[in-house]
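Researcher: Here's the sequence for the chain we discussed earlier.
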Amino acid sequence: MPLHSRRVLLLLASSLSLQRTLAELQLKSNFGANQEFPSDHRGDEDNVSPPLSWTGAPKHTESFVLIVDSDGKGAKDGGEKPTHWLVYDIPKDVRELREELSGAGASDVARLGMKDDAGQAPVVVDPMGAIDGWVDPEVQAMEKMIHGAIDLSFDERNRAKEGKTSFGGTYYTGPTHDGSITFKLYALNGRLELPRGATKEEVVQAMKGKVVGKATLTALVG
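Model: Thanks. This is the structure I predict for it:
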């Protein structure tokens, strides 16, 4: 077989492999593709984020990015499609975003992937470990070790972050005008390492060369 023909076949095989990889990731919510967007998640109703879950993350996934845009109106800056939610550096082991995770001026996104007990009340190893101000060194060392394991999940570098939306905040803001809204989930082979509050342009730029999978889910707003 001529060298040129072999190169063409290799390129085709590589392209098909990439397409299969990109098609593996699937995104689901409490609405189906091209179905009506639930009113609870509209900006003029409860204004809270919908539940999202996904399967089929590619093998080399290290983080996820979620970008939510609509073709409706209502953004302060006008012009481009409004961005309703922007989440990046979602930990690679996370497979769902619970309902009401973000929105109505509040957010719990930073806790994604953390241990259930992270940030809770101090662990009591031995109630008799401290008497009259004296602390048993062994108990103190054990508590330090336990808290150290818990605090690892509080490392800012490992936290998911929200970027700026078209509405001035860094949390979910639902659509208020008729049209459609699209949730785009990207699997990345690395983290973006951007600070909280990055713009969509900064996130998209940082994603270049890192995307290994993508899934989209569109709903109708009416």
